[in-house]
TrEMBL record:
<feature type="domain" description="HTH lysR-type">
    <location>
        <begin position="1"/>
        <end position="58"/>
    </location>
</feature>
<dbReference type="Pfam" id="PF03466">
    <property type="entry name" value="LysR_substrate"/>
</dbReference>
<dbReference type="InterPro" id="IPR005119">
    <property type="entry name" value="LysR_subst-bd"/>
</dbReference>
<comment type="similarity">
    <text>Belongs to the LysR transcriptional regulatory family.</text>
</comment>
<keyword id="KW-0805">Transcription regulation</keyword>
<protein>
    <submittedName>
        <fullName>Putative LysR family transcriptional regulator</fullName>
    </submittedName>
</protein>
<keyword id="KW-0804">Transcription</keyword>
<dbReference type="Pfam" id="PF00126">
    <property type="entry name" value="HTH_1"/>
</dbReference>
<dbReference type="GO" id="GO:0003677">
    <property type="term" value="F:DNA binding"/>
</dbReference>
<dbReference type="GO" id="GO:0032993">
    <property type="term" value="C:protein-DNA complex"/>
</dbReference>
<dbReference type="InterPro" id="IPR036388">
    <property type="entry name" value="WH-like_DNA-bd_sf"/>
</dbReference>
<dbReference type="GO" id="GO:0003700">
    <property type="term" value="F:DNA-binding transcription factor activity"/>
</dbReference>
<dbReference type="InterPro" id="IPR000847">
    <property type="entry name" value="LysR_HTH_N"/>
</dbReference>
<keyword id="KW-0238">DNA-binding</keyword>
<dbReference type="InterPro" id="IPR036390">
    <property type="entry name" value="WH_DNA-bd_sf"/>
</dbReference>
Length: 310
């Protein structure tokens, strides 16, 4: 039994006439008659009474037609669902990110993706680069925003594209002596209590701060360790010390703080978008399309990385 047999039976029940049903189905009447007869033989009972007044379902036919209509509805729904999944309009996207990605570009990207793909289930996981890289390799994440490209076993199978460059800046409360300065020097920072992000999880960030302050500086060893950039800014506002973090901290509007450049300019690891090269899922493709729309400069680099190589 095929779906066409169900359509033939439903059309015949609606038109109560072989000729009219055949016309709607776009086939000749004799083939329709044979198909209905074949269907009745397969079912093992008569589904239609052929009378002078027309063709009418039997009791068995009514029972069969009730399920046939539901089956056809399910087939139509399955076709629609398959099409939506194939276009990346449904499904699941598991995304890992470092906290600073929530300053830029994640807010715009997630907002747009949510509007364009409201039926995709987003699973968001804040995690350090040291964790998200292995999670990508293991297939536990679909995409990740990390500080620097993921490293370690299996990282060679990932596609990684920089989505943001950064350097160290300082944040202080408005009552702090540095609040009126455009910039502060490394020498000035060494004399202040510092607030930094959780170094154990982001060793590349710690390396950058050591480059700035000096490996033998005690300032970093005695620093207050904050969970993320929002905590750094909050603690700086209370006057606890001078917060050090990425320049994208400026995107966080908060009364009671001032941002200062730091000299010498000390680069931090790039914010990097990564995903498995073998992952060709429609939902991931849709997410990458959103990246292209929101970050055109990233889109060119992404297309270059995905272009087949000779």
């Amino acid at each position: 039994m095929e779906a066409r047999h169900l359509r033939y039976a439903v059309a015949l029940a609606e038109h109560e006439h072989f000729g009219r049903a055949a016309g709607e189905l776009g086939i000749a009447q004799p083939p329709l008659s044979r198909q209905i007869a074949d269907l009745e033989r397969e079912v093992g009972t008569r589904l239609f009474d052929r009378t002078r007044q027309g063709v009418f379902p039997t009791a068995a036919g009514e029972a069969f037609l009730a399920r046939a209509r539901r089956a056809l509805d399910e087939i139509a729904a399955a076709t629609v669902d398959a099409g939506r999944a194939g276009r990346g309009e449904t499904g699941r996207l598991r995304l890992g990110f470092v906290a600073s990605a929530l300053l830029d570009p994640l807010p715009g990207v997630l907002s747009r993706f949510g509007r364009e793909r409201p039926d995709v289930r987003l699973e968001l996981h804040e995690m350090a680069t040291s964790r998200s890289g292995p999670a990508l390799v293991a297939g536990e994440l679909d995409v990740a925003f990390t500080l620097g490209p993921p490293r370690g076993a299996g990282a060679e199978h990932l596609v990684s594209v920089p989505v943001g460059r950064d350097h160290v800046i300082a944040v202080v409360g408005t009552a702090h002596p540095y609040a009126g300065q455009q910039s502060v020097s490394a020498a000035q920072l060494r004399r202040q209590p510092l607030i930094v992000s959780a170094g154990a999880d982001e060793p590349a960030v710690v390396a950058g701060l050591r480059t700035l302050l000096g490996t033998d500086s005690s300032a970093l060893g005695g620093a207050t360790v904050a969970r993320d950039v929002h905590t750094i800014i909050g603690l700086a506002a209370t006057g606890v010390g001078v917060g050090l973090g990425p320049s994208r901290m400026r995107a966080v509007p908060r009364p009671g703080v001032r941002f200062c450049d730091v000299t010498p300019c000390t680069p931090l690891p790039d914010l990097v978008l990564s995903f498995a090269a073998r992952d060709h899922s429609p939902v991931l493709r849709a997410f990458l399309d959103t990246i292209r729309k929101n970050c055109p400069d990233v889109g060119a680099a992404l297309d270059d990385r995905l272009r087949p190589r000779p």
